[in-house]
Amino acid sequence: MTADDRFGCNRLATLPGPLRLDGGVLLSPVEIAYETYGTLAADGGNAILVCHALTGDQHVASAHPRTGKPGWWTRLIGPGKPIDPARDFVICTNVIGSCMGSSGPASVNPATGRPWGMRFPVITIRDMVRAQAMLLDHLGVARLKAVVGGSMGGMQALSWAATFPDRVAAAVVIASTARHSAQNIAFHEVGRQAIMADPKWNGGDYYGGEPPAAGLAVARMAAHITYLSEAGLTEKFGRRLQAREAKSFGFDADFQVESYLRHQGLSFVDRFDANSYLYITRALDYFDLAEEHGGLLANAFRGGTTRFCLVSFDTDWLYPTLESRNIVQALNAAGAPVSFVELTSPYGHDAFLLDAPEMNRVVDGFLRGGR
């Protein structure tokens, strides 16, 4: 890697594969879109893999090419931040199944020359991690200083430590879980049904035509509610009505919170693919790290040398603190070194993406402690 990479470099790697998926299918070739920041040290000891959440992407600390918005974790990654490209070689990949360049439903099936659509194979969190490992092999990164992620990114961090324990020195797991609850699955199913009920979904064969924007927007609205907290919504919106010259009752967005959710849904459809949403939410629902290791979560971490740091937020009801405590108990049972903290925030699950100076101090201290 060159010094030019310090400021972010967006790339696409086409790996020959094959990648054997948990479902038994061989995926080949495997395309991985990724960004790097910083320079890989001569001994390869400064590489940090950052894993994104459900609707995230590889643009973790640089502007999104489609929306122009800053990277989604610039509060954590950058000069003088806990993860600093002047010190660390940072890699962030777009997970397979997604729609920002990695192999997924919208990419071309080499066998047909047409987009995969719903013919793309079912994927799991562990499949995403195996694809990332292939990319790291391609980049010459044998071992990670750390793997860091929040929400679905935290699931990937856990899966990395369980699947490739010899390649991970430290794992930072923020606002995450070792398995999806029935409530999580239920919310995702509402979103999937909204997409599939949209006539424009057309069984997933909408590429080249109009996408199922209305269904995807509703799915995003339903999911976004789970990312917030009741206290946060009340403080921001309460029951305030939209400002209008003449009050009218009906099914327009009378309440400010309604308008906010509709904006979230409409802006989301401009950057995300509906089929990818179906595939990735299903991967999240399948995630159960204990089930992958004989039904006992501690088995996922036995014999490894990875250090763990877990962070939860007190208003997160999507992945509440109890989920993190369950992981900590399993790590203790496995004899793995772990630190854990619950932070206070009014922002619910989204707190890990927002201004969280206490989280930054925890992550910074943990990463520096491993040097």
Describe this entry's structure for a reader.
With 371 residues, the protein is α/β, with parallel strands linked by helices. The chain folds into 2 domains: 3-181 and 289-369, Rossmann fold; 184-281, Rna Polymerase Sigma Factor, Chain: A, CATH 1.10.1740.110. Helices cover 32% and strands 15% of the residues. It contains 9 helices and 12 strands. It has helices spanning 125-139, 152-163, 182-197, 213-227, 230-236, 256-268, 274-286, 321-334, 357-369; strands at residues 9-15, 19-20, 26-27, 30-37, 47-51, 89-93, 108-109, 114-115, 146-150, 170-174, 307-313, 338-343. An 8-stranded mixed β-sheet has the order 1-4-6-5-9-10-11-12, with helices on both faces. The longest helix is centred in the middle third of the chain and has 16 residues, at 182-197. The chain starts with 8 loop residues before the first strand and ends with a helix. Homodimer. Pfam families: Abhydrolase_1 (PF00561). It is found in: Cytoplasm.
